[in-house]
Each structure stands twice: as C-alpha cells, then as structure tokens.
Amino acid sequence: MKLTREEQGILTGTNGPAARKAMEILVALGTIYGADRLVTVRSVQIAGVSYDNLGEAGLEFLSEMASKGATTKILTTLNPAGMDVENWEALGIDPEFARNQNRVIEAYTSMGIVPTCSCTPYLFGNLPHYGEHIAWAESSAVTYANSVLGACTNREGGPSALAAAITGRTPNYGFHLSENRRPTLTVRVVAKLSGTRDFGALGISLGKLIEARKTRAIPLLCGITHATMEELKSFCASVATYGGLALFHMEGITPESVLYPTPDDTLAITRDNLEEAVRTSDALETNKVDFVTLGCPHLSLEEIAHVASQLKGKKVTKTFWITTARPTKQIADRMGYTADIEAAGAVVAADSCCVVAPIKNHFKVMATDSAKACYYAASKHGFKARLLNFEEVIQEALK
Ligand code: F3S
C-alpha cells in the first residue's frame, strides 16, 4: 500500500505512539483487503461504547490509547452507551455498571470524541455529504450513510474507526471504490409500504432472500413510491441486521442509483413476503408483553412529538422506554414533549437503547416497531419480541 510522506511519518512515530498504533491498524487492514492507499476522511462514528459489549478488555484498549495521547483529528461521534448517562437509575442500571460505563465515555471524551451516544448522528451535525469518504462503525448508520446520503464507508470495527479518527484516514477498499457500489440485483417491491414496521419487515424479507442466495448482492429497490427519513432509518437497521447489507440502492432515494444500469437479475417482494417476515419476528404472546420500547434506531423529534401527543393525559401500564439522542431529547424537553411522556409514566432515555443496555432476562416479552430490536431481544437478552407498528406499540403500553 502506498503511503504519503506524512503517513509514513505517522507510521514511524512522528505524531506519537497512539497515532503510530492507529496507523499500524489501518495499514494492516488495508494490506488484508488489498487497498492501494489511504483516503482522507472527515467524519467518524464509533461503535463499541456500551460496557455491556466492550467489557474490561475493550476498556483497557481505550484507556491505553488515551494514555498514549490519542487525539481525534476530525469530527467523531459515539454510538449509544449502556445507559442514560444523566439518568441511569431510571433504567434500573446497576451502580457498578454505571461506574464502568462512565469510564468508557471518559476515555473517549479524553481523546476529543463527542459523546453524542447515538446511532443517528446524521440527525444532529455529523451529516456527511454525497460522495464523501467517511469511517463509520454503527451498522444501521453505515447503511444509511451509504444508501440514503450517498457517502462512502465500509462497516468499520471499533479499533479501525478509532484509528481513522486519530489519523483522518481509512484504507481505500470496499465501498470507497465506485466499482464496488454498483447494484447487482433488482428487487421489485410489489406492495404499498407504510410505517416503520413495514420498512423493518422489508429489511427482514430482503435480508433473508439475499442470504439464501449465498452470493453477495447490492440490491436496487424499485417500486417504493415514498419513504420518510424515519422509515428509511428503520429499513437500514433491519436490512443491516438480517442481511448484513451496508449498501442498497433505492430508486428516487439513493443519489447515485441513477448512475448505474438496472441489473437483469430480478426478484420480487410482495405483501405476503412482508406479512411472513412480521410473523416470524412476532412472538404473538399478546398477553405477556411486559416491556414496550420505541427508539431503535433513535427516535426523531417528530416521532417523539407523536408519542407525546398519544400519551398526554393517559397512564401507561407497562415499562415503556422511548430512546433517543441527547440533542433530540433536549429539544423535546423544551417543547414539553418529555414532560407529557413522563407524566404518563413512560421513560424518555437519552444515550442508550433497549439493545445495548444491560437488561438480559429483565423482561419476558418486548413490544417494539423495530425489526433490529426484535432480533437482539431474542439473541442477546433472552426475551421474546412482538413486532408491531408504531401506533400499536403506543397502544400496547396503554393496555
Ligand atoms: Fe441504534 Fe441501539 Fe437500534 S444502537 S440501531 S437503537 S440497537
């Protein structure tokens, strides 16, 4: 891999031991994937923040990098943590966990990383532009950045994203190369979609169909006439989870989809496929729901406003978490939405979500509109999940 004189210098330690370590990580990664050089990045999103996932080994790596003087060169934001940093008691978080979680966040902030603790950085300032090279790690945000914004990123791991933040570089391979971004499969969506659950179901269905073909594919989705930002973030989270997709093209949405011919290889997704996807993700345990949550990916302000309007003057009967980014919550606080939601007995939690919080076996059946959260409820937390639409989730909390 060809390095510039400056990059060579960093590799030999001119910018200190942390930058050298970061450059070593990038060069090793680039060599494995056959990159010809490094590209400059101006935005990083780091995953691997919850102490529940990171553990002591991960924290040690971060602390070592911080103690060696690691400093970010570019705008770098953080994924959700295992708790609401300011209000962790409301989520029933153990004080020992809270102490360790704070150590993780302190290690990141000491390196200059902005502790946004959210998977939707594009909603509040970390918004890359079309064609921009970035290094993001959160799977749903990676898919959103590539497919909706038209930025270019591979799905980074925690160390490689941190290395990109410290050096402002990432290896030039994968989705940084336009030849790897061409659609290879046309997907005709023969169903009218509406709401976050429908788009989540589309992600399940498409992800499973692509996995079953056992060949890597970049789909071009045709036939979707309208999609909101909220529906797209739901779809991105779902298709990244069920199909491992970091890039899709959607007609009328993905900026670069007009650059490529429509692939001949075609499959169709019908309303029956979507209903089947919902059925397989829905535990159907209608009487046993004891945990209700919205906010995977983190809710937008508009979604929070809607929840507030539906809960105002009522009381929830179950644990109900509404998870979002702190900047979004701060606006919701000012607008009075948080007060209305909390007066109903629900919790508006910033910085965290139902997947990365340490709630294994805390509940039996979760109700949510998020296909991604359903997947992890079963695989990580040991509880069943019901995949409902947004309105049904709110009604479930009030039942
Ligand atoms: Fe975001 Fe947590 Fe879902 S990180 S995409 S809210 S699993």
Structural commentary:
The protein is an alpha/beta fold. Helix content is 42%, strand content 16%. The protein has 14 helices and 14 strands. The chain has helices spanning 5-11, 17-32, 51-67, 95-110, 139-149, 158-167, 196-213, 229-242, 271-281, 301-311, 326-335, 337-343, 371-381, 390-398; strands at residues 38-40, 43-46, 75-78, 135-136, 169-171, 185-190, 219-222, 249-250, 266-270, 289-299, 319-324, 347-350, 365-368, 384-387. The strands form four sheets. A five-stranded parallel β-sheet has the order 12-11-10-13-14, with helices on both faces. Strand 13, helix 13 and strand 14 (384-387) form a beta-alpha-beta unit. Helix 2 (17-32) packs across helix 6 (158-167), helix 5 packs across helix 8 and helix 7 (196-213) crosses helix 9 (271-281). The longest helix has 18 residues, at 196-213. The protein is globular. The model has no long low-confidence stretch (mean pLDDT 96). The structure holds FE3-S4 cluster (F3S). The site of FE3-S4 cluster has 13 residues, from strand 10 and helix 13.
Key features?
42% helix, 5-stranded parallel sheet, 399 residues, binds FE3-S4 cluster, 14 helices, alpha/beta, 4-stranded parallel sheet, 14 strands
Write the layout of secondary structure elements.
Layout: H1 5-11, H2 17-32, E1 38-40, E2 43-46, H3 51-67, E3 75-78, H4 95-110, E4 135-136, H5 139-149, H6 158-167, E5 169-171, E6 185-190, H7 196-213, E7 219-222, H8 229-242, E8 249-250, E9 266-270, H9 271-281, E10 289-299, H10 301-311, E11 319-324, H11 326-335, H12 337-343, E12 347-350, E13 365-368, H13 371-381, E14 384-387, H14 390-398
Parallel strand pairs: 2-3, 2-4, 6-7, 6-9, 7-8, 10-11, 10-13, 11-12, 13-14
Antiparallel strand pairs: 1-5
Helix pairs in contact: 2-6, 3-4, 5-8, 7-8, 7-9, 10-12
The protein binds FE3-S4 cluster (F3S).
